[in-house]
Amino acid sequence: xxxxxxxxVVIGGGVIGVSLAYGxxxxxxxxxxxxxxxNRLTASRGNFGLVWVQGKGKGMPRYVEWCxxxxxxxxxxxxxxxxxxxxxxNYEKTGGLEICLGEEEHQERINFIEEMSQASSSGRYxxxxxxxxxxxxxxxxxxxxxEVSGGSFCSHDGCVNPLNLxxxxxxxFQQKGGGYRPxxxxxxxxxxxxxxxxxxxxxxxxxxxxxxxxxxxxxKLARMVGMEVPVIPERGQILVTERTSRVFNYPTxxxxxxxxxSFMLGSSHEAVDYDTETSYEVLQNIAKRxxxxxxxxxxxQLIRSWAALRVLTPDQKPVYLESEQCPGAYAITSHSGVSLxxxxxxxxxxxxxxxxxxxxxxxxxxxxxxxxxxx
Amino acid sequence: xxxxRVKKFDYIIIxxxxxxMAAAITARAHxxxxxxxxxxxxxxxxxxxxIETLEATRKSEFSKLGQEYESGSSLVRRFKKxxxxxxxxxxxxxIDNNLQIHHVSASAxxxxxxxxxxxxxxxxxxxxxxxxxxxLPGWTIPGVMPCTAADVLYKSSGFIPDxxxxxxxxxxxxxxxxxxxLDVGVHVxxxxxxxMNGALLKALPLLPKALRSHKYLIxxxxxxxxxxxxxxxxxxxxxxxxxxxxxxxEKVRISKSGKFFDVKADLLLLHNGVVPNVQITRNLxxxxxxxxxxxxxxxxxxxWGNTSVDDVSIAGDCGRVAGAAISxxxxxxxxxxxxxxxxxxxxxxRDKLSQPHHIELARHNHxxxxxxxxxxxxxxxxxxxxxxxxxxxxxxxxxxxxxxxxRMGIKDPDRLKSMTRCGMGYCQARMCGLTVSEIxxxxxxxxxxxxxxxxxxxxxxxxxxxxxxEID
Amino acid sequence: MFKKQYESHETVSIIFEGKKLDVEKGLTVASxxxxxxxxxxxxxxxxxxxxxxxxMMGVCFECLIEIDGIPNQRACMIPVRDxxxxxRQQKNKE
Lengths: 375, 472, 94
Fold this sequence. Notes:
B: alpha/beta, FAD/NAD(P)-binding domain, seven-stranded mixed beta sheet, 37% helix, C: mainly beta, Ubiquitin-like (UB roll), five-stranded mixed beta sheet, 32% strand
């Protein structure tokens, strides 16, 4: 058994864990990042790479503000990472679109945007409806399908290469002295008044602080230190095409053209437990919708597809929690780990290391789930 | 999904090579409904490529190919008459868990070729083998090809290499193709032998069994003798091979004993052994194991070719590579098993009917361990020493980049893929998968068995979005 | 790089890079181009380096070329047709 002592152990090498670990070493903390063995449970490699505000946070204005703040920090965050590592993140903040097919979707979107704008406490929520004509003029190089009725545009939105993001953060983390320990399965966590003892099959880590960012493993891990953090898996399937010249210059949640020219298509939502298989039906539905929006896509060859499991709390908004039973242990879980990487690596790190609690932070406490439960 | 027309069959066979054809013939003989899908425009697989046309229009060349081809021709004739639904020019792109299969035209250059869907009770994967990639510096220059490419051109079109040809690698197939080229007057300017030193010695312990089928050995030796007799310079103990040229191959640089020299070349034909094509078995989630002697992955199967996935079996060289004759035998055995599993014959009947096949299998297998050991791929040719060599041709990922990423702590191939793009291209890791497993294994000082392989997802072959959506 | 052993029986006319080529009927696009001395089919999408056919059996996707306006077709799997228009492809398809 290898024994290691450190200041902070972060459990979870996905985008959230790496963001936190990276932010902490930048603040000078001694950090060890433990990563798991199970390859199926990784939302961080399977996502769309959106840095997104539009469409998120309905019912929790604090979260909307949180997302907006994250997108505002993103440009500097990306620049720092690129300078530190030399890796290209392919980050673009062009604003993002949502494209509607038919009148019903269009009306639903109008209602939604209005609701979100009104709920925005700061008034910063900048999202507006655009007509089909405006939409087509924003996309001069590609023809919209006949059924496209219009859409919404949100200036906060952008996109990134999520794979390069993790690679860059992990690399910079290690460059700055962080210890990366892959192939670990956490078996036991013990907490005493002064420290945490984390046992995997091969290592025993002793740390003053423990950060659990274990994705779908968070529930099990958090319980070991007295926290109840419910998360469930939700499957999403994605298609990727061959490269073509860049014609689609704004990301949407269902279609985006990557920096290298390939098109990425989604989105789908299925509750299928831990099944990461793709299915003919869903792939077909995604392809069909994409072609209805951009008919020219039909000639592009599909090269890859995958399915990944989103990590969702009951209301799909973050949980940020410090254990009462074991102070110094934290659980961090969220959908949108990519979008929030800029804020996780800064504001959340300040919360963990310096105890600076962000405004309105109680919104992210999981007790909100108990309140919603009917007895 | 309910609206698509799905044609049902008892037995669906993917691959119309020796194994697939044999299986179809046997299955049909017992009355099963059989569908055979194959990517190529005619039956025969790689070894009997274009055999019908060859026999019909190039009779003298056909007769020179030997007795094996006569029997191959007869096999194709029996296959065509057996009553199986045979569809050439079809690429399978998706196989569902319930063995529903989706396929498109392999050659259509338009997006609106029809999709077809079919449903199997039992599925046979008989997609054969492929060349082990032999990455070396400059291997992406036009003019560098695997030796089977020359074989394809010869069989399909009668074309032969023009100009100076260099052969490099090891293995019986390279010898065979080399001799064929000599027979048609091709100028082979050098034979670069990369077989391992002392290979013959290592194989000697297995010799007594092998002698029972010594005609294989004699044939192999005669091929080597032929090349020697033709006066072709044979180089061994080579340290490095590099292909050089601007827009096409101009010369091959050979490093030996600390020195190097160049050989002018218009075509460099490579070969480092033949490996099972596991793309579909991996996609289906079959268990695989690492066959260390020959450094490749093979699906784990029982004596009947059954994989770890229900109702999916394999036959032929997409499992342990054994050549055309055994491929047919394993095809017959897999079909008999299916006929039994579908309740048409009893277990006793299956066992009785399969006896002659088992005997033949045993006979051919006497020499296989010896050959496998004799033609072990040399380690140095699995991972190029020159780090700048491209491991992944499609995405142009160098060996050095893969090593750097592994040293970041990345051990899993899929994670490596996400960080380097290696394996994300059109060929879907067929050309780099083995190399990646080898590099990660070497960096971690473990066997590739421990490292594993990329997860193989749909589409098994690229298809257009229009074909996925099934619109015109 | 490759040459014919004997004369063709039946030919078709294809157009490669704007020039007419008479090639034997039944050949794949890749074979037809190779035997007429054309060895570079495209420039690679990553670095732009010249690429041509490699495996000749549909596995490697090196022989991608534009046929009748549609790019990224596997030339080794597609038979030639009369009046087929074939063009090399540059880094990204237009």
